[in-house]
Write a structure and sequence with these properties.
Helix 20 packs antiparallel against helix 26 and helix 21 (580-595) packs antiparallel against helix 23 (621-630). The protein is 48% helix and 11% strand. Strands 3, 4, 5, 8, 9, 10, 11, 12 and 15 form a nine-stranded mixed beta sheet that branches. The protein contains 27 helices and 18 strands. Keywords: Coiled coil. Residues 718-754 are annotated as: Disordered. Residues 720-743 have a biased composition (Low complexity).
Length: 839
Amino acid sequence: MVAKRRDGIFPHIGTDAWGRNLADAIENTCAEHGVVPPPRQAITEGLATALPDTEIRGLIASRSGKKVLKPSAYRLVQAGDEQVLLLMCDAHGAAVVPWDLNDRTVGCWSPPVAEAGQRVKDLIAAELALHEARKTAKTAEKERESCRRAAGDDTYAAQALAAATQKHEDAERRVGELEGERQALLTALGGRRPRPVVRAAEEDGEPKAALTLAEQPYEVAVHMQRYAAENLERAGKTRGYDLAESLVDAGQLSKGMNVLQQWQITRPDGTVSKLWRLAAVTGNNRALARLNIFRVRPEHLVTGMPQSLLPMPKDKKADPELLLLGQREILNRLSDRLNEAAAKPEPEATDPSVRAQKIATVSAEIVIGCTKPAALEHVLRTLNVNDHLRGIQPYDEDARLIALFATLVDAYARESLLADALAEAFPDARGADLLDLVGVRDALTANGPLDPLVPLVPAGNDVSSTVLRDIAVRAITALVFPEIPPEAPKRTNARTVRDTGRFWPVVRGTLQEPAWSQTKAKTAEARTRLWSAAIAQLFLHRGNILSALGFFGVPETAKGAGQDPRSLKVLLLGAEAGDAKAWAALVQRMAPALIHAPQPFITAGQGSEAGDGRKGVRRTPKSALAALTLAYTATSAPNISRALLLAFAKAVLEHPDATQPPETEGGEPLVCYGERHWVEGRTPITAGMVIAPDTEGRPTHYVADKAWFDETFPVELGRPAPGSLGSTTTSPTAGTSTDPTATVHGAPPADPHDQLATLRRELPARVELVESGYQQAVDSAHTLMTDFEEAHRLRVQLGEDALPAEQRIEWMEKLTKVRAAAQASVTTLEQVEALILQV
């Protein structure tokens, strides 16, 4: 005999038959509007299992012998260039899971690098081992106390007490070791977790209007969902009222947008559960608050609800290992339990059956179709950002700036200027016209890999993570600080309006800045904060975004960043060859990595402006960058050499890609330079840390940290004497003369022996620079020849007339000058070959 369901305000979920009817209606309605529906399984298992039968009946109508949605049950919205079909319905109050990708918590996620997944697994294992070790230590402590308080003073009692004391000490020592391992793993993860990567779900090989996560072990799924919920709760504490009590008192007053998403969970026995659930795109805080009121944990909805938490009378025995995977079963059991509790004569006011009455069902808008499923995640992110930026709830500063930058990138794309802006910023790109702009947007906002930026890498340069990150930093800089055309000379006294070009109005309109002529220090600081927050998303270890204040001033904000177009490879060779301008530009490229390192070298303003005694020497971020820039040509720092600077630069640029902790050649243990005199409490050495080089560029036994940086590049180094060749500016164009006979501070000319040693050290890099330059010229000439051959073939094929003689003569004159210069350079190179034998 089937038990009759208890009636009550908490709804029961529809049957399989109504789920199939809803799937038919959604598919037919999507076909009428030319949008792609979700997978059929997503509708029957994720959507229909969250709606009561009565609700599904009210959504469906029959027309021409087929089921469709009623016109009042859906609406079609325009989201940029895409269209999204939304189902308007009342869903079970506990059927929606908070979305991990909420832009309010974007700062708590790190880039989804491959090795981070394994580190999360190691962290989970370490936390489990630590939990067991603490239980063992607690038991050992009780045994010791029991022996200590036992009566008698015989030898056996003393031995038992000593054994219990030793056991407790061993247990406490083990707890300390495991805590150190856990802290090391947290440090290696940058104190955050890798951002979940979702993609469009597929059905029969075709993308559909739903999202899916990659397979993940059960323990990892539980850990990540708890982490997301904890950070969402932390972000929600900035509200001026208690959201949960508001929902209990007045219910949910506004709709939230949801999307169907699939979690693929690998069980310990090797089986894979593919669970469809509704995820909140907007209203994440409300979704989490509702689950808290129902006393349901989000991880239980997406990984399986333990049967022991929702027992039923028909269950013979509550099995703590048995998980309920079906959403219909979970919600029906929850409703039955709450209806039963609400039917009691005087239920407690704190019981969920009383507190959740006004959110038993909630109004929701659910994505059931879109025109381009591959871009669905991007569209939903944009809607989430717009909903939050226009809302009244406070934003974390970092999250707000990241959301603004995403809006800025979308504004460039909407005006069809994103590709043009990047092509102008990368004149040597191998194929800026081949950019996948959707992938570029995801790469610049750290919502996807950096691979779409490969066409911006110069031809002939190797593609690596370091190079792609440098490209991303330069691209972000170009978009936030766009170049404006040079000012035209005035021919009359009439008032003229400054031409700000095509890109600056996009920045002004998105960031709501004043007119170009009113660009002041406040605007420069706000733009620098935006740049710093966007750059921080590219790094695993996220430093303080205020550490970049002062990097850009009013000139860069008004006229553009003025980036050096040379690649990292060329800049490193130039710095090795003695080019001070190349080193200054290289320092600019290093700056983000100096901030976002496991041991940051540049931090927000520190010390006291009044005196050094109270808070230490005053050190602003700009001072640190200026000292590193001027160290290249400084003669007052004998402990700094070009070899040290170059070794440090290479290590800093490559450190974000390290997967293993640094090690010395001899295997000696490493310690942070600032902790070399410590005995306990040292920072664990993790992947990404940089070994401090000596004056010969060889690794030492210390890890470079802030103490090493401030001691090697002191504040005084960034204050050149008046009339010196250095400059305190951080502009990439700042530099010094490379003449080896120049004098500094009025000093006598350098010793000829030193000049010879310097030249011998720099000449290999200069030879390589010339080689790469000639190779680029040869490639350009070959490309030019191929283009002219193709133009000639097409002209003959089409029977077109030849170009005018004037134009052909003009081109030939230009190429003749180029050929003459090339022949002269060949003569020069022959002379260099002869001189090589004499050096």
